[in-house]
Each structure stands twice: as C-alpha cells, then as structure tokens.
C-alpha cells in the first residue's frame, strides 16, 4: 500500500509524529493532558480541549495511531476524496471536542464517574474512533477465514489495532472512544446536516501549492499478484458442486486441447518385376513413439514399401536386377540417382523418367551404348521384352528409333 491519492493521511501521520516527538524532547507532555478539575474548572485552560488531539502521550500510542491511520485512513480517504476527508477530520475534531467537554461535565454528577472520567489522555483517540466507524461501514472485506470455528475477515487486524489503542489507559479512554463512535454515526447518518460542508477552495489551493510539495510525491499503488482466498460462500458452493459431481476435477490450469489419435497410413507392398512378392518381415507397430519410428522405418524398408514423405504413394525397395538393368542402360548416371528413381517408379517408368532428363547427342549415344551392353544379357532370357519408343525417346531426342525393337 502506498500514499497515492492519500496526501491528507500522509500529512496527518507526519504531523502527529512531529508534535509527539517535539513534546517529548521539549518536555511539554504535561500541557497535553485534559482534566476537568483543575485545568478547566479552576484554571480555565480551555485551549487544552483542542491541544490534547495534536500529540500522543507515549511512543506505544504513537505507533498504534500511525498503524491505524496507515491501514484505515488511506482506504477512507480514497473512498471520500481528499477534500471531503479533510472536511470530515475537521468536523470530527470540533464535534468530539464539544461532546467530550459535555461528557466530562456529566461525569461530575456522581462521585464514582467523577473519579473515573475526570481525565482524558492526550492523543487523537476520539478522531480515530470516528474513522473506525467509517471504516467499518465503507470498506468491504477482501477475504474471510475461520479461527477455531469463528468466522473472521481481513478487517480484524484493523479492529485489533483499535482495540489495543483503546485499552492502553483504561477507563480514561472509554469516554473519547464512545464519543468518537457517536460522532462517526452522526456524520454517517447526516443527522446534523454536516456531510455537505467542505473546506474552502482557498485553503485547498494553499495546501496543494505549499503543503503538498513538502510531503513529497506518492508512488503508484503496487498491484499485488498474490492469490487471495475466495469468500466462504463461494468456497462452500464450489464444495457442494464438487460433492454432486465427484468426477469433476477442480483446477486453475487452462484446459489443454485433447489430441485425437491419427490413423497410420496403410503399408502397401509391391510386387517385384519377376512376379515374386518380397518376404513379409514387418513387425507390429509399437505402442511407444520414441524408438518405434526407427524400427517402423527399417521394417518398411525391409518389406519393400513405406509411406512417402508427402503422405501419398509408397516408396519401393528396388531389387538388384532392376538396379543392374538401369545401370547398364545408363552407365553415366550414379547409383544413387538410379536408386532414387527406382524407389518411386517401376523399371519401365524409371527408364522413361531418366530418358526425359537426357537431351541431344548424349542421350542418343547413351541409348546405343546401353543396348549394346545389354544385348548379351537380354538374349539369355526366355521372355521377349518389347521396348516402346516412349521408353527410349525423350522430348528432346535428335534421332529416331523404329516403332518396336524386338530383342530375342
């Protein structure tokens, strides 16, 4: 908590601290005490009715007053506004001074009350009590909790400070505490029609121009990132809802989208050119995804086909006879190029694909050389292979070939 938008409370805290320290240093505390007999009745020192609000008698009272103003006064000033808050303090000081004097006079009617309530200790006890009433009515609790089954809120700490401040000098402080609560009630109910009174604008401008710069600039309020406990009513409602639905998981984490399992692409097998099917050495798909990817890839290579990179088609494993056939037809090409083409196409489509990449005379010479080198091996086969012109001719060929070449 900071003093942002609470300059009156900051000035009041500094003023009470300075006057209390000054009264202790210069030994002026005996002027702060208020007694009906003999100060007012005999010596007629009516100025004590006003002075006894300005300073505290002890350091313990000063500490409690400062704590109370810091915890309650800042909240009330931010709710009222600085001008209305200053007007409320002035009205409370004047009315408590008058009612306290009337209370001291009424206490002299009986011997017992005249002994107990003849003295009022120094300090703004009555003003703090009026502030306490406004705090109880205006400031809502931030959270609730229970101690030994007793429900409490965060405002209990302010009430504890006020109770300790009122119990330091009993029973003398009972009168100013009662007077302060009465004044707070009268101001809140507007029974005396004093809520509309404000400090004059001349005093406000003087304070803003001359007093406020002396107090210094207040830092902005630090927004806390701590999680406060939720109200008890909401907690009970949440607990009842959880009891009705035991499967519900209550969490503050953001819900993550559920991943839907994707079907694996089917593993297709290809048939070798000689009509034989490759052996089926595929293993069942493993459950885990860490080491199963490598094993699946190896099994698919061994089976002769695996899904392509783009998701469509398959990658086949060419046989050595197909690799030797294309190597003989295209000796200038590297083995990796031939293997890559055969993995995606059959042998006839591979010849057409490689032939389309070759142009000019190099293409024609490559075809002739492949046919010459391939003739002895082709003659050993029982079947007749027919090579169409589309297999041997590319779009940029310079020579022509008869319609059908029959090799026996």
Offer a few descriptive terms.
two-stranded antiparallel sheet, 53% helix
SSE layout and pairing:
Elements: H1 7-25, E1 34-35, H2 36-40, H3 48-51, H4 59-80, H5 82-107, H6 111-116, E2 119-120, H7 125-138, E3 144-147, E4 150-153, H8 156-166, H9 174-189, H10 201-215, H11 232-244, H12 292-303, E5 305-307, E6 314-316, H13 320-329, H14 335-342, H15 347-357, H16 360-379, E7 385-387, H17 389-392, E8 405-407
Structure summary:
By secondary structure, the chain is mainly alpha-helical.
Could you characterize what this model shows?
The structure is a single chain. Helix 5 (82-107) packs across helix 9 (174-189). The longest helix has 26 residues, at 82-107. A hairpin with a 6-residue loop joins strand 5 and strand 6. This protein has helices at residues 7-25, 36-40, 48-51, 59-80, 82-107, 111-116, 125-138, 156-166, 174-189, 201-215, 232-244, 292-303, 320-329, 335-342, 347-357, 360-379, 389-392; strands spanning 34-35, 119-120, 144-147, 150-153, 305-307, 314-316, 385-387, 405-407. It is mainly alpha-helical. A two-stranded antiparallel sheet has the order 1-2. Strands 3-4 form a two-stranded antiparallel ribbon. A two-stranded antiparallel ribbon has the order 5-6. The protein has 17 helices and eight strands.
Are there runs of 5+ residues with pLDDT below 50, and where?
280-290, 304-313, 378-408
Spatial shape: rod-shaped
- Note the total helix count: 17
Largest sheet: 2 strands, antiparallel
What average pLDDT do the residues reach?
Answer: 75
What order do the helices and strands follow?
Answer: HEHHHHHEHEEHHHHHEEHHHHEHE
Structural class: mainly alpha
Intertermini distance: 102 Å
Radius of gyration: 50 Å
Strand order of the largest sheet: 1-2
Strand content: 5-15%
The percent of residues in helical segments reads 40-55%
